[in-house]
Structure formats: C-alpha cells, structure tokens
Design goal:
Layout lengths: L1 E3 L2 E8 L2 E8 L6 H10 L8 H8 L4 H8 L15 H41 L18 H21 L3 H9 L6 H4 L5 H10 L2 H10 L4 H19 L18 H4 L4 E3 L4 E2 L4 H14 L7 H9 L5 H6 L5 H6 L3
Helix pairs in contact: 1-2, 3-4, 4-8, 4-10, 4-12, 4-13, 8-10, 9-10
Length: about 325
C-alpha cells in the first residue's frame, strides 16, 4: 500500500482478480495544523499565525484553499510571496461581488417578469397562462413535455399562492379566493422559474421580449441563462471570480466583444470567465434603467486586481485593466 495526499492506494484480490482501490485517508486537523499545512506549501503570513487561526475558525480551510488555487504551481506549492491575508482579501471581495450581482439580477428578473406578464395578459387574459397549450412553442417542445411543465408549474402556482405573505395578494384573495391572475402570480416566481417560462414561450413572444431589451432572440436567451447561473452561484456562496463557463453566452455586439480577453489569437477565442457576465449585466441594466447608479461591481473588480495589471484583469476575462476602470456598472 502506497500512502500519499490523503489517499490510500492499494490492490485487492477478489475471486482471483486484481482490483484497484482508492480509500480516502484524510484526518481531522486542528486550526494550528491547518496553518502549518498552508505554510508547508509556501504560504506566508503578514499578520502572524494567531490572526490567521482566528480566520480559520469562521472560514473553512477548503474555502480559503479554493481561493488560493490560482497562486499554486504545478507541484501544488504556492508561488513566491503568496500571503494568507491576500487570499482572505480575495475571498471577501468575491463575496462583495456576489452581493452586487444579486442586486443587478433582481433588476433583470423584474424586467423579465413584467414583460412575460404583460404579453400573456394581453394575449390570453388574466388566467390564460394556466392553459400552456395557448402560449407555448409547439415547434420546440412536444405536447407531453408541455403537459409535464404545465402540471409542474400549476403545483408551484398553488403552493406559492397559499404561502405568500404579500399584502396585495392577501387582499385580492379575500374577494377572489381561487387562481391568481398572471399579473400577481408572476411576482411570486423565482428567476429560475421565469427563465423556464421564457424558454417555453412561443417564439414570437420570445422575440418580442428580446427586442424590448435591444437584442436578437438567440443572443438574449443565452444571456438570461448565464444570468440565472451567475445568480444561483452568487446566492449559494460559490467562488465566482475563478469561474470558467462550460457554455458561453453569445456576445455579438462589437463594443462588448472589445472588452473581453482573447486568449487564443489564431482561433479568435474569447474568454470563458466572469467578465462575460459582467458585460452582459452592464448592457442589460442600463437598457432597463439608463439612470442606474453604477460603480459597485467596478469597485469590487478593482479590489480583486491588487496590482492593477492587465494580467490580473485578463484572469477575470477582461482585455486589460483599463476596461475595468471604464466600466459603468
């Protein structure tokens, strides 16, 4: 048996066959031992190990390690002059960025809710939304899937209608105790629900909403899916400064493209980092509210670029640091 990196690697012979087994052998480490482990890997401490230990009592070791990964080399050791306090700074400004994202996504969510409720109410009346066959895209989805989504949403509508603490809905239900009209039920749905409803809409309605936001259908749909993902990650305390999107939103506006880092010149391949979400949010929020008092996201991004270099900005997906300086959001 060979032991290393918390794994016990060995071989078992079962009924004449050789089987490989990996057994996790990690052990509980005290806060002092966690600090020592960081130090053994090359991390330094500006304010002393005692203060670092206090941080570890409230921030999980692996959360700190996650934010330090960009500063490790191929041998799993820290590069020169990597300080514990700088990683903590990075952790907190990622947190601030996530909070600012939630503020922005709320505005986009409200805009989507307003658009969907307006169109469904205009076309099918107060309760027409309950008959999914009327407004869903039958060229995109089969009738079995539409029926499934209708039943799923009706259960959700019933639950939300029962549990809501909204005063305006409570007043409405005193007089009309059954279904809620589209203009009221829409406000109870989450951003995830709203994006689902949008993708179910008949294509002409999806195009209308995309056009309202100054975009073509395919581009807009990829944007709101990216916004939904960013919102979910932000709400559940995930590291977003180091995210690499598997599916990139489509960005066809040249002015936006010019803000992004191209990491492969030959193929003209743009970044898959958080800069994508930032430029999308910037476009949408100022389309929704031209007087939006921006600046918070720019402040967080500048804090995450400690030395104000282009290299730091490119790790976030921006063309250079000057692009971050010029952000309006």
């Amino acid at each position: 048996i060979v032991q290393g990196s918390g794994l016990c690697k060995g071989f078992l012979i079962i009924e004449g066959e050789i089987m490989c087994s990996n057994i996790y052998k990690g052990i509980h480490l005290t806060f002092e031992e966690q600090i020592n482990l960081f130090e053994e890997r090359g991390m330094k401490f500006k304010d002393g190990k005692d203060k670092a230990k206090e941080k570890l009592k409230f921030i999980n070791y692996y959360k700190i390690k996650e934010f330090s990964l960009p500063y490790m080399n191929e041998n799993k050791l820290y590069k020169e002059n990597v300080y514990f306090e700088d990683i903590i700074h990075r952790f907190y400004w990622d947190k601030n960025l996530r909070l600012y994202f939630l503020r922005i996504t709320e505005k986009i969510e409200i805009s989507l809710k307003t658009s969907i409720a307006y169109i469904l109410g205009r076309e099918f009346g107060a309760f027409g939304y309950l008959d999914f066959k009327k407004w869903t895209d039958k060229n995109r989805y089969c009738r079995y899937y539409i029926s499934h989504k209708e039943n799923e949403f009706k259960r959700k509508f019933a639950l939300l209608s029962y549990e809501t603490g909204s005063k305006i809905i409570s007043e409405y239900k005193k007089e009309y105790p059954k279904e809620l009209p589209i203009w009221l039920i829409i406000d109870l749905l989450s951003l995830g629900d709203i994006v689902d409803l949008y993708t179910l809409l008949n294509q002409k309605f999806r195009k209308e909403i995309a056009k309202l936001h100054g975009l073509e259908l395919e581009q807009f749909e990829s944007w709101i899916k990216n916004i939904r993902l960013a919102r979910n990650l932000s709400a559940h305390n995930h590291n977003i400064v180091d995210i690499e999107f598997t599916t990139k939103p489509k960005i066809q506006i040249q002015e936006m493209k010019e803000k992004l880092h191209i990491y492969d010149i030959k193929s003209n391949t743009t970044t898959n980092k958080i800069a994508l979400t930032v430029v999308i949010m910037e476009y949408l929020v100022f389309k929704i509210n031209a007087d939006f008092p921006g600046g918070a996201i720019k402040k967080a991004l500048k804090q995450l670029c400690k030395y104000k270099t282009d290299e730091e900005a490119q790790k976030l997906g921006f063309k250079n640091f000057q692009i971050i300086e010029k952000l309006k959001i």
